[in-house]
Amino acid sequence: MINLLLPGVMEKSLSRAMIDKALSRIKVDNLYMIVNDKAELHYYDELGTCYLREDVARGIFTDEQLEPEEFIPLEDEVFEYMNPYVIEIINQQRRFEQRYDFQVSSAWESHYRIFMRNLLFWNSMLERKQITHVFFTRIPHEGYGAVIYHLCKMKNIPVMMAFASLIPNRDYALTDYMSSDREIGEEYERLKELYRDKTAEEIELEGNTKEEFDKWTSLDPALMKPAYMKGNKLRKTFRARYGETNLIRVWRGILGKEYEKYGMGIGFLGASFARIPKLLGAIPSTYKRWTYARPYWKETKEVNAFYEKVSEMPRPGEKYIYFALHYQPEATSNPLGGGAYTDQIFPLQILCRSVPKDVRVYVKAHPAQLAFFGGIAYYQDMLRLPQVRLMKMECSTYELIKNAFAVASLTGTACWESQFYDIPAILFGYSYKNASPLAYHVRTVKECGQAIQDIQEHKKTATLKDLKLYTMAAHNLSYHIEERGRVFPELIVRLVKEM
Q1: Both 315 and 263 in a single domain?
Q2: In terms of residue numbers, what domain contains 92?
Q3: Radius of gyration of the chain (CA)
Q4: Tell me, what DSSP letter sits at residue 33?
């Protein structure tokens, strides 16, 4: 019997067409789905049992879904297994606070209740429905998904998921996010043996992987900077979280192709006139979003003003480790940061405890970080560490990397880019980068201290060939995101047939 659970179902990621393609190749007795968008529910409900993401994220289940007469109570075994992940999961749930479309209360009691409801429901559901396989479109990082993931691990239910590779616009498949570096490490070693007698110039990369590698090796910040970091990242992130609050932008969105076609000419005015009723209809909802979001934008500006006040420029000649803060909340720090380390103050404390007396830790905030998950108290706690200096936002990340003794992060891109400058990387989380040539994966003060000692003694070295082969390993194990329509059905088939 095959009973398949698919969290994260939506037309732009795991569409009805992809599911149909997978089902045409495997026999599934029962299909269960968590659907992200209520408006798309009708695409999937004829395939099997559907749950709505906004309900699951808030721990809301109907009596029919709960089947109270049949549910399985939670026992010590489940609590003891899940205890290490409670803080991680509740912090994931926090991503739904302040959402415009549906909100979750920030109160601890609310988050505890949501966590316990999901734990009770999914523990019982996985058993009662005899779920045999689970496919996540992304590493679970929204609370309820992590509950499902860890319960599956406890019950030995095979899971598979996709996540971003270190090569932009490419994803890879994995079954355990805490050991994602194992497979790429093995592929890297295989390639080193295969190309043992080749020079870097004789090794060919393909497609967008070659383009990205050329950008990294250029050491030109304008080329190296990821596309998602260009423009006013703070405002983009704010709009993504709270919705569009600018009426002119809403108007442009309504006009769409006409705006692109005519610019601000006569044709544009004609097209605009025809859509005035739709624009007028959008005014109330835009105003409502603006009034909702305005206090949060004000708070973000206050936090940024404080950060600007207490931050400084690098001091000439000072030896430092550059600690690049993650944007939060995101999967790159939770769950990939690993447990309590999702709060970046803890790995920062470990790093500060491990550095020699003459080494400082330069910390730079993520340019997209909102006041949410990054308030004034957050930076005040960092400044209490005597080794820490907060760097001004105008400081170039690449200049900070280039002049650093080492670069540190949970799983950040800076820890890959640094290696092209021959600067070692210290990673506290679980990442594809952990097995890369100049990387040190650490979790404790002892491990961090040993890594710093190795760096001082130049224990690890990397050539352009090494970095090229590691990039090739990442390419070989990944696929372009435009291929999801082909790859996701294949992954589901592979999950069911092989695991």
Answers
A1: no
A2: 3-157
A3: 24
A4: E
